[in-house]
Amino acid sequence: MTSTFPALLIRDEVLGSHRVSLTDMEPSELMDGEVEVAVRYSSLNYKDALGITGSGRVLRRSPLVGGIDAAGEVLSAAEDSGLKAGDPVLVTGCGLGEIHHGGFAGRIRVPADWVVPVPKGLDLRQSMILGTAGFTAALALQRLRANDQDPGMGPILVTGASGGVGSLAVSLLAAQGYEVVALSGKTRQHDWLKSLGAVKVMDRRGLSQGWRPLETARWAGAVDTVGGEILGWLTRTVDEWGNIVTIGLAGGAELRTTVMPFILRGVSLLGVSSSNYPTERRAAVWAHLATDWAIPHLDDIVTEEIGLEGLESASKRMLAGDVHGRILVDLQ
Ligand code: NDP
Predict the structure, then answer these.
(1) SS3 of 42, please?
(2) CA 107 – CA 19 distance, rounded (Å)
(3) 238 forms bridges with which residues in the sheet?
(4) Which CATH number do you get for residue 62?
(5) 74 alpha carbon to ligand 1 midpoint, in Å?
(6) What are the C-alpha distances in Å from 129 to residues 36, 115, 117?
(7) Above 0.85 for ipTM, yes or no?
């Protein structure tokens, strides 16, 4: 019986060429950790697409198995880990696919504190339709709530709405009673975004490119996956005491604004960094995602299911803006 497993290995030499190969690995090639997992599902996130295509400095060692998400069954675990063979578990972020062999493989071996038992109410497949994107959308909701963003304050704008984080945020916030307006560059997906719960969809290409410190307030709050000009525009158009959760940089890493929104309107800019979210607080967030923050429409949000061999082309399409929703990676 062979114990090798398939893996997507990325070579990202600073001065060399970028290469991605589908390879067979031995368990002995895995990195240190107290828990070994037979991976059943992973998912494709923006960061993975940057790493696979070599478009961004995601990998901090090379060669490395990509994949910042993984879900599967425990094969073996240290006795004091609280886990046993057969337990359904997931890992998101924590350095997976960045400094540690990741989830685009039949197996992972990871430190025990990275591992979250899949909560009752979710199965392995659903946990990876959510993956880092769903966990991040949940953290955005948590930050909004903690900073008093009440649904009664008015509409929340979600940017990059057709993307993985964006579509899950639209569905989650709508289910939590917020009036969600979706901002998207994909005209073809407007009806789909409405089916996920957006009351209105706006085309991002029609936005004002003005540069006044404050513009007419239009949003009670925002969840932004785009950054750049759009985030700057949000600071100028969010109403008094509203919150903007900044998550991504699909449209740029810079932020051009002034202090005016913060000191004249009391606007707050809240960050989310899912990858290094404290491990001891992760299970509680996942428990919410399985119960009171359950995201409806998960089956409509997963738009593609691919194997390891489909990752390179899907990554290119993702960075070109040719995908929407979530791409599930099936390793079964
Ligand atoms: P996706 O590719 O699935 O979604 C990105 C979306 O952004 C696209 O669907 C598109 O939406 C929009 N977009 C793409 N390019 C541009 C552009 N040039 N200008 C304006 N909008 C654009 O990626 P993810 O959902 O996986 O990730 C989104 C962002 O969030 C990424 O930057 C990612 O790195 C970041 N991220 C951050 C996390 C954190 O913890 N802070 C965790 C997860 C992701 P549309 O066409 O509808 O406008």
Answers:
(1) strand
(2) 21
(3) 219
(4) 3.90.180.10
(5) 31
(6) 22, 17, 16
(7) yes
